[in-house]
Amino acid sequence: MPRHLKGQANGGKQASTQRRPADYGFQPTMSRNAYERNGYNYVPSDYASRKGRKGHHHHVGRVILIIVLALVVLGGLEGFALYRSAKAVKTDAQAVLVESSTLKNSLKTGDTDTLRTTVADISAKADAINQEVHSPAWVVASYVPVYGQDVKSIQTLGNVAVDLSQNALTPFAHAAEGIQFSTLFANGKIDVAALQTLSSSVSDIAPVVQSSQQTIAALPQAHITQVAEAIEKVRSPLTSASTALEDVEQIIPYLPQMLGADGQKRTYLVVGQSNAEMRSSAGFPGSWGTITVTDGQIIMGDFTNIASHRYDTTATADAEELALFGGGLVSNPGCATYNPDSPSTAKLCSSFWSLEGNTETIDGVISFDPIFLQHLMVLTGGYTTSSGVAIDGTNLAKAVLSDAYWDLDATEQDLFFVDVAQGALQSMMDNMGKVGFTDLMNVVKTDSAAHRLSVWMADTDEESAIEAMGLSGEVSKDSSAAPEVGIYINNTSWSKLEWYLDVTSSIDAVTANADGTKTYQVTVNFVNTMDYATQDDLPDYVKAHNPLATSTGTMLENVYVYAPAGGSVSVTETSGGDVGVSDSTTMTGIQVVPCTVSISPQQTTSLKLQVTTSAAATGDLSVRTTPTCTEARQ
After folding, report:
1. CA distance 518 to 563
2. pTM value?
3. Which stretches of 95-242 are assigned E, i.e. beta strand?
4. Where are the alpha helices (DSSP H) in 408-500?
5. pLDDT at 358 > cutoff 70
6. What are residue 364's DSSP bridge partners?
7. pLDDT of residue 520
8. Residue 18, pLDDT score
9. How is residue 99 annotated by DSSP?
10. Cα dist from 131 to 63, 120, 139, 161, 505, whole Å
11. Of the ranges 45-54, 171-180, 505-514, which is most confident?
12. Averaged over 155-159, what is the pLDDT?
């Protein structure tokens, strides 16, 4: 058994008819003035204009509970009547807590009868709570100097609770009747029919939840500590729900067709990239294969290593790409990921797949690095490879990016990489039904932002939805967006040395210019963390083979410094290893400064940059870099 892997062995739109809130028996409300004239319980009049909106899921129960708990702190402010009212509110709050748990379980299991009853109970209690906090004792308290503002905030929380329960939770629950959320993704199949049913309801949910979130966010700072704490606790789940809905709303109209609804077959090319040999978009495209989807049923094809040989017939790239990245970009699939713009890379990979003699039409490309796979396996659990190695959410990246090169020969490495890529994906598909939606979206969003995951769709509408979700991995060409300077790295030492590379950056100073632009001073450090003892013991496959390298552990990198869209960049100073700075050029209208960087073991090579943003740019400058192996190595 290999020394690093030893001991791991023996350890995988047709929307439903939506009913309006009036169909559930909700009644018109009267104005506050009418309430004060007639002595009725007050419910704000703007519900009449909002009662046609529809809504969300079990997060709402939690929000209602937190709102209610805030009411209790005011129990002694307005005497016995207010105290008695607060006790009634507390009783209803405790009941909501129990009902929320029941609601969550019934959504998971698809228990329609329990779901319907639970939603009705929660809605009734939210209405009762809201009536209490708008009763005479609370209205009088709302006019008390200073602290009356806190009472008004509590009343606003009550309004939000009713709005969410009646116009979000109830309609969504009715749309979800009979759907088992725990089996939306199970046994390698996604329930497309259920997604079609929920699609229009989700679109209706977003405005209600987002409006409620904005209402809570606009509340003034409370004077009573407990009220302030309760309001803050409400903001968190509402913000999470609003953000999740915003993400889902972008893509859910297209999900059924992307998942092969109505019998259509979709084919997606899956590309695994290795950060141990860096490429600008993430890493060397080490293995690839396809998955097909028909009516939600996912079938995984065979995965193979990408052959690093040149073709007489080349893939397609434009003149700018060829001038910056060289001819290998279109003749060698191992160079297909030289471009940091992931949609461009995806199109090249699709072209190379066809050049390999594959005839199926590629509907999209999904690219990821081993660290993204490892993050997913934290959620789905591990599996054991055909060679008996236990792979899970703690060791996948290290096994693929380092251990395999030390422990296996070249033939064994190829088989191991394919085994891990295919086996990990299959295991995750088999267990995805166990994963919470919020947890999954957190991994997807975090790793997409870090450019460890990217998705490209051949259909332009679907690709627009992917871009809106931030999953495309494109280099921004929008000069009015948040500005970013790009540091993109291509290995030229012909090695797997980037396992030992750290890349750090700092923004050292900023100057606001008279023309509305901003100029930043930025430092980027490239650190070769390898020690000399490790260099002396390096496996041949890991060593630098470029004769320009001064030692077997010396990293040679082509570094492309991309200016922010509509802005400019220059390299003002270098230090550490050898650095060459070429004349700037452009790529899709963006200024690029190509550099060559040499980093010996235990050496830090630094670039100091002057970056000026567009006058139209919004927000502060960020630094985007090719993702490294640092997380897996530490």
Report:
1. 13
2. 0.80
3. 185-186, 189-190
4. 410-431, 437-449, 460-468
5. yes
6. 268, 457
7. 98
8. 41
9. H
10. 17, 17, 11, 11, 55
11. 505-514
12. 87
Q: What is the DSSP string of 351-379?
A: HHHHHTT--SPP-EEEEE-HHHHHHHHHH
The pLDDT of residue 548 is above 90: yes
Pairwise CA distance, residues 389 & 397, whole Å = 13
> Could you give the CA distance from residue 257 to residue 504 in angstroms, rounded to a whole number?
41
Of 134, 173, 177, 170, give the one whose Cα is nearest residue 152.
134
How far apart CA 588 and CA 230 sit, in angstroms, is 49
Q: Is the Cα torsion angle 112, 186, 361, 351 positive or negative in sign?
A: positive
Specify the 3-state DSSP secondary structure of 557: strand
Contact (Cβ atoms closer than 8 angstroms) between residue 272 and residue 425: no
Stretch 612-616: mean pLDDT: 97
- Which residues, 6+ apart, have CB-to-CB distance to 50 below 8 Å? 163, 167, 208, 211
**C-alpha closest to that of 557 among 629, 628, 632, 498:** 498
Q: What span, in angstroms and rounded, lies between the C-alpha atoms of 70 and 318?
A: 61
Check residue 61 and give its pLDDT.
56
Six-digit token string for 155:
């009343």
Q: How confident is the model at residue 349 (pLDDT cuts 50, 70, 90)?
A: very high
- The whole-chain average pLDDT of the chain stands at 84
Which pair of tokens denotes residue 431? 């267990």
The length of the chain is: 634
Element (H, E) at 138: helix 136-141
Question: 104-118, 248-262, 372-386: which range is least confident on average?
Answer: 104-118
DSSP 3-state of 136: helix
**Six token digits for residue 416:** 């191991």
Buried b (16+ CB within 10 A) or exposed e, 116-145: eebbbbbbebbbbbbbbbbbbbbbbbbeee
Q: Which amino acid appears at position 236 of this protein? A: S
**Cα Rg of the chain (Å, integer):** 29
Rounded CA gap, 133 and 172, in Å? 26
Q: DSSP letters of 416-428? A: HHHHHHHHHHHHH
Q: Does 259 score more than 80 pLDDT?
A: yes
What Cα–Cα distance (Å) separates residue 142 from each residue in 154, 191, 471? 9, 50, 47
> Is residue 464 a contact partner of residue 470, using CB atoms and an 8 Å limit?
no
Taking each helix axis from N to C end, the angle separating 370-380 and 437-449, rounded to the nearest 10 degrees, works out to 170
Distance separating alpha carbons of residues 293 and 270, to the nearest angstrom: 13
Report the distance separating Cα 422 and Cα 270, nearest Å. Answer: 10
Rounded to the nearest 10 degrees, what angle do helices 79-109 and 59-72 cross at?
Answer: 170
Q: Please answer whether residues 368 and 290 qualify as being in contact, where contact means their C-beta atoms are separated by less than 8 angstroms.
A: no
Distance (Å, whole) CA 144 – CA 83 = 16
**Phi, psi (deg, nearest 5) at residue 342:** -60, -35
Q: What are phi and psi of 231, to 5 degrees?
A: -60, -40
DSSP state of 304: E
How far is 331 from 129, CA to CA, in rounded Å?
69
Question: CA angle, 466 as apex, 464 and 471 as ends, to 5°?
Answer: 140
Distance of CA 600 to the CA centre of its chain: 35
Angle at 191 between CA 185 and CA 193, to 5 degrees: 160
Residue with tokens 């040149």: 310
pLDDT band at 203 (very low <50, low <70, confident <90, very high): confident
Q: Are 352 and 315 in contact (CB under 8 A)?
A: yes
